[in-house]
Each structure stands twice: as structure tokens, then as C-alpha cells.
Amino acid sequence: MAIVTARLRLDRLVAADAPALFAYRGDDAVARYQGWKPADIAAAGAFIADQARLAFGTADSWCQLAIRDKATGELLGDVGVHFPASTDEPIEFGLSLRPERQGQGFAREVMAALLDLAFGEWAYRRAVGSVDPRNVSSMALLRSLGFRQEAHHVESYFFRGEWVDDVIFAMLAREWRRHP
Ligand SMILES: CC(C)(COP(=O)(O)OP(=O)(O)OC[C@H]1O[C@@H](n2cnc3c(N)ncnc32)[C@H](O)[C@@H]1OP(=O)(O)O)[C@@H](O)C(=O)NCCC(=O)NCCS
């Protein structure tokens, strides 16, 4: 499977991606607000192998896609899509870009393509995002796409040795359709 946008191609991660995946997912700045941080290239490879066994779109699972430069094939990052058990439940996304590829609109381009699919072909009615409010770029990304903040849970989540806040964003299909 592949999703093609103006500058990007999203497709499955392959074994050869392990060193590049480890290089940015193992980076402290990229991993700071993420549940998964590979300890070494082998851990990145194991993650890719697990993903290869999972059909894209499997209900009740997180499916990871590579984000590649369409022209060069360079791995720029990855995006996880959480497909819930049914389309009545919200779909969710998790993005990571290599540090040197942030700030160029790639995350927005990926999210726009996935929201088009989520609210079109895949027929979801609601998308959600859950963000640590210190993750300024993620907050900005969701707001720029038209997600609404629905909640701010204060010190609701114990993560890496501290109680952290969790801000919940959401968007409905009809809100995406009228987003400029
Ligand atoms: C979250 C994350 C994916 C957002 O990436 P990003 O690069 O900030 O987002 P975008 O790709 O949409 O880029 C937006 C920026 O690019 C700029 N930009 C440059 N060219 C652009 C273009 N052609 N189109 C749109 N925006 C463009 C925008 O002005 C904006 O800049 P600003 O932040 O100074 O306002 C990234 O910060 C990341 O990987 N973080 C680490 C992992 C992480 O925490 N993930 C979230 C876990 S919940």
C-alpha cells in the first residue's frame, strides 16, 4: 500500500529502514513525548518486523507507515495510525519526523492526506489527538489542521517518572470538510 502526496510517499517500513529509524527515534528530542524509544538498531528492526506481520488497517491496532521523500526515497519519519475496533470510535495518529526534516510542513502534509482518507474512504466520523502541552510543535500541528481542544487533564498520566498533563484534541468529519 502507498499514499502519495505532493512531496511525500507513505508506505510500509522495510528491514533496510532500521538504521535510519533508530537514528531519529532513538534521538532524545524526538522520543521525549513518545511511548516507544528503540535502544538500538536491532530494536528498530524488531519493531519493523512486527509491523510487517500486521495488515495495514487491522482493527484495534496501531499501524506504522514510513514517510519518505517522494523524489529520493529518503526516510523522513514515520506515522502511526490507530485503527479502533469500529468506525464509530475515533481514529488517532502519531507522527515523528527526523529533527532536520521538521519545520518544513511535512507533518501537516501527512496529516492532511490521512484525514482525507480517514473521513472519506475509511468512513470515520471522529479523529482524536492526545498531547503533552509541553510538546509545542504537536499542539501547533493539531491546531493548524483545525483540531479543537476538548480537555486538559492536569497531572493525569504517569510517564517516565513524573505526573504529566494530557491535552485532548478532536475533529469531526464535517469539521474537516469545511476546514480551509
Ligand atoms: C510533531 C512533529 C511531527 C511536528 O512536525 P513539524 O515539522 O513541526 O510540523 P510541520 O511539518 O507541519 O511543519 C510546520 C512548520 O513548517 C513550516 N513550513 C515550512 N514550509 C511549509 C510548507 N510548505 N507547508 C506548511 N508548513 C510549512 C510552517 O510554517 C511551520 O513552522 P512553525 O512551526 O515555525 O510555525 C515534530 O515536531 C516531531 O517529529 N516531534 C517529535 C515527535 C513527537 O513528539 N511526536 C508527537 C507525539 S504525540
From TrEMBL:
One of its GO terms (molecular function) is protein-N-terminal-alanine acetyltransferase activity. GO terms for cellular component: cytoplasm. InterPro entries: Acyl_CoA_acyltransferase, GNAT_dom, Ribosomal_N-acetyltransferase. PROSITE patterns: GNAT. This is GNAT family N-acetyltransferase. It comes from Luteibacter rhizovicinus DSM 16549.
